[in-house]
Every structure is written in structure tokens, then in C-alpha cells.
Amino acid sequence: MLKDRYGNFISTTSQAARDKFDEACLLIRLYRGDPIAALDGALTEDPEFGTAWALRAGLLVQQMDKTYAEETERSLRAGAAANLTDGDRAHLAAAQAWSEGRFHEATVQYARISQESPRDLMALQTAHVGCFFTGRAAELRDWPLQALRAMTPADDGYHAVLGMGAFGYEECGQYDEAEAMGREAVWIEPQDAWAVHAVAHSYEMRGDTKKGIPWLRDSADIWAPECGFAFHNWWHLALLHLDRGDIPDVLRLYDEKVRRENTPVMLEWIDATALLWRLRLEGIDVGERWQSVASQWHGAAEQRHYAFNDVHAIMAFLGAGRALDAARTLASMKRAAAGSDDNAYMTRAVGLPLAEALVAFDSGDYEEAVEKIGPVRGIAQRFGGSHAQRDLLSLTMLHAALRGGQREVANALAAERTAHKPKSPWARTLRRRGAQLAVVQEAA
Ligand SMILES: [Fe+2]
């Protein structure tokens, strides 16, 4: 039996299959190229290579898109019948749980593999992604820190573990640690887009556009080419420009970098939608942009797989004026909420009240929007995503309060924002608008 590039036993005796598998591992940790194609190459060399089938299944489930359900099932079935190490069996069981909607259980299972085999970077990375989707912020940070015990800076993949740790630090509000660890990772491997991303988050959360914009802009030639994750780093750059009120730059980034017409990647639809919604809050005319992204959501409007996706579908439908599609997704979410899988809980706890708040906002019922977002804003991590993504709740609530004349709510949220982001021009603008609202109301 051979070992992979990190020293873990793998279930093949084919050197050629091992080489393709190692290539996939590299692509996965860098979010580059087409790791599925590399795994398929490994499986062409050795169809009984269970490690490759297991990794393939793990990669597919973490897309959080039901479109891949059939391919996932095929990988799980083929994997179960292939040659397997004990580690492969654990990987397959975790991917199986994920495919059945047991996101938390799957995430913990992957982490368990990583604890037993801290050099199994694929288990660690899948656990890390699982933490992201389930809002397990402390473990986003702690599981990579645990794995570092088995590595030295000279080891293959060390940068990736640092990059994960950096993002975990950021999600735990430890921005200095996030910045330092992320920068170390990028220094070792400048193509590590996840580590670049972790550092960018540390600037986003502090409203530090002066550091954030050059950090992303000036290194893009290194991390962006052939990176399947580049759109998200470009999204972060657009957010930083939005913070400064550089609307032409935001729209340029949207058109050229964030939004790829007809992309099948749902995470890209999410970022496009979330950026357009922020522009909508600011009253920016985005022309026909809503129409194309809403059309893409059309086919996924009733997936009931992940509430975070469903909420973004509703946002796109509302932005495009497609009320019937928004109502269709809302009804679908209500059905999802009655279920028993993790998504049912996510939908009940956060997704549904938030979706109803967005519908209320869209119809001009700002008081209702404030009332619906208020209770879920503090627990929104339960339906996953990052702080930066979930900032949409705070922004929508703040704008609803401003539009609805709820001046104390608006001022409270604006004050919170300037406290967290003292350097943010947008936060200061919102604070000013809140103060103006008070003056107007007192004068009336
Ligand atoms: Fe991000």
C-alpha cells in the first residue's frame, strides 16, 4: 500500500493513481484547477482506489448543492465497493452523513479523522468547510490548531493548516492573530487563496479599507489565476470598495470578477446576490443585473438543502421583482422547517424569519423587517456563513430602521458598527444618517 503526499496510507498500489490523487490534494488545498478531474484521472488508473472515491464524495457534498446528489451517491457506492483503508471507511461514513443532511455529524466525523490522523489534510479541510457551513466558529480555529502539532514549517501543506487557523481566528474575533497567521501562510505559499481570504476578512471586520484593498488588489495576479475561489476574494475586494462608497469600482468588480454569467457554482450566485442586495440597500440602481442571477436561482428555488442558499434565492427574486418565485421559495422553506435534518433546524431558527424579514423589507414594511431580524441576528451563525456574509442581516436591519424612522434602533446599530469598524467610511455615513434622522424627527 502506498502513502499520499502527506504520509497517509491510501488504498492503491498504482503509482500513477497516487500521483493523480496527490495532484487533487494540492488543487483542493489551493482551491485551484479541477480536482474532480484529477480524482477521475486517479480512478481511471485504478477504479478500486477507495481513497479517491471517498475524497470525491467529500468534495461534492461540500458544494452544498443538491445538483451534485447523484454524483455524490455514485462516489459513495463505488467507494463502498472499492479497496479501503480504515481512514477511507471513516471518510466515506462522514461524506454519507453529509449527503443525508447531517451536516454537524459529518463535520465532527471529519474532525475525528483529523484528530486521529493530524496529517490527513483532506479530513481537516473538509471538517473546516463543514464548520463554516454550520457556524462552528471555535472549531474553525481549534481543529487546525490541533493539527499543527503534527507538522513543521517545512512540511508539504503546512501553509494550508495555517490558512485554516487564520480564518478560524478571524471568525472568533481574534483579528491580530488571524492577520499574523494568515500572512505567514501566504508568505510560505502566495497562491493560498484561503489564507489570503482569511487576512482580507480580518480587514473587513475592522473596516480597514486602507490595508484591505491593497492586500487583495496587489496580490491578485498570484492567487487569482485558475483559482475556483477567486470570485469570493474579488467579492471581498468589492465589499471594501463599497465601504468607501466607490460604487463604480464595486460595479466593475461585480461585472468583471464576481459575476460569471451562467456559472453553475452556487457559491458564486450567493456572492453576486449578496453584493447586489447591499447596493440595493444603498439605493444604487444596478440595472438588469438582478435578472440574470435570479434566473439562475430559478432552478434551485426549492432545493430545501441549505437555508443559507434559500435566503439568497429569495433575495435575488425580490431584487428582480419576481415575487412569485420568492413566494415559492418561502413556501418551500416552510416545508423544510417541518423536517428533522440539520437544514430543518437552520431554517426554523434563522432562515425562515430572515426570509420573511426580506419579504417585509421588499414590500416597504420596515417595522416588520426590524422585528423579524432582531431576534435572529445574534444567533445567525447557526445557519452558517461568515461574519462578513451575515453582516447583511445587520445592514438590512439598520437600513430598515432608517427607512422606517425607528431612530433609536438605527442609532444603536450604527453606533455598534462604528465601534467595531472605527475606520469604516460606510459605518460613519450610517451613523450620520441615524443622527440626521433624530434631528429631522425632533424638528417635526
Ligand atoms: Fe469570505
How would you describe what is shown here?
- 73% of the residues lie in helices and 1% in strands.
- The chain is an all-alpha fold and 444 residues long.
- The protein has three domains: 1-135, Serine Threonine Protein Phosphatase 5, Tetratricopeptide repeat (Alpha Horseshoe), CATH 1.25.40; 137-258, Serine Threonine Protein Phosphatase 5, Tetratricopeptide repeat (Alpha Horseshoe), CATH 1.25.40; 263-404.
- The termini are far apart.
- Fe (ii) ion is lined by residues 197, 201, 232, 236, 386, 388.
- Fe (ii) ion binds at residues 197, 201, 232, 236, 386, 388.
Number of helical elements: 24
Element pattern in H and E? EEHHHHHHHHHHHHHHHHHHHHHHHH
Identify the strand order in the major beta sheet.
1-2
Tally of strands: 2
The general outline is globular
Mean pLDDT: 97
